[in-house]
Amino acid sequence: MPVSLTFNRALGALGLWSLLMAPASALSLGERAPAFSATTLSGEPVALAEVFGKRPVYLKFWATWCRYCVYELPHAQSLYDAYGEQVLVLMVNVGLNDSEENIRRVYAEQGVNLPTIIDTDGDIVAHYGVVGTPNHVLIDTEGRVQYRTFLATDELDRQVAELAQSQRQPQEVRP
Fold first, then answer.
1. 122 within some domain
2. Which residues form the signal peptide (predicted)?
C-alpha cells in the first residue's frame, strides 16, 4: 500500500476520532438552530438567518466515504424534487477527508443534483452536535429544531411533508 494512501487513511481515522470525541452536544428538539452562511458548490449563497421565519430547512450531514450516506442520496433527491419549493433542502458535507471533486463524482454516479455545502472547518458540524453520518436535521419555519434522525425513514418523509404542507397557501375556493 502506498505511503500516501496509508497516511491519508490514518489522518482520516484520526479526523473521524476527533470528530467523534469533540465536545459536541446535539441540539434538543425545540431548540433554536444555529444560523450559518455558506456558498453551495454551484456558487449560490445560503444564509439561514434569512431563511428562518420564511420557510423550513432540511439539513442532511453526510460524506462521500459514508456508504449509507451515498445509499441515501436518491432519497434526498426525491425529497428535494418533491418539496424543494417549500423546504430549503441542503446537503452539508462534513468536509472530513473529502473534496468537491469527490462530491461531484459521487453525485454523477448516483444521478443526483442537490444544493451542497462543504463544512471544511467543522464549525457547522460542531454547532449542530453532529457526531456521525448520515445525520438529518429538520428545522421549522421559526428556526427551531423539529426532528433529528440518523436514517432516512418513513417518519423523516412524513415530517418533511408536514413542514412543506405548512408552507403551502390555501387555495381560493370559487363557487
1. yes
2. 1-26
Strands 37-39 and 45-47: antiparallel
The beta strand positions in the chain, using DSSP E, are 37-39, 45-47, 57-62, 88-93, 116-118, 135-139, 145-149
Is 175 part of a structural domain of the chain? no
Q: List the end-to-end C-alpha distance of the chain, in Å, as a whole number.
A: 75
| Helix/strand/coil percentages in the chain, nearest 5 | 40, 20, 40
| CATH number of the domain to which 105 belongs | 3.40.30.10
Residue 10's identity, in one-letter code, is: A
Answer yes or no: is pLDDT of 9 > 50.
no
Q: What ranges make up the beta strands (E) of 57-127?
A: 57-62, 88-93, 116-118
Q: What global pTM score does this model have?
A: 0.81
Full domain range(s) for residue 33: 3-167
The structural domain count of the chain equals 1
**94 contacts: CB under 8 Å, gap ≥ 6:** 19, 61, 62, 63, 119, 122, 125, 130, 133
pLDDT at 27: 82
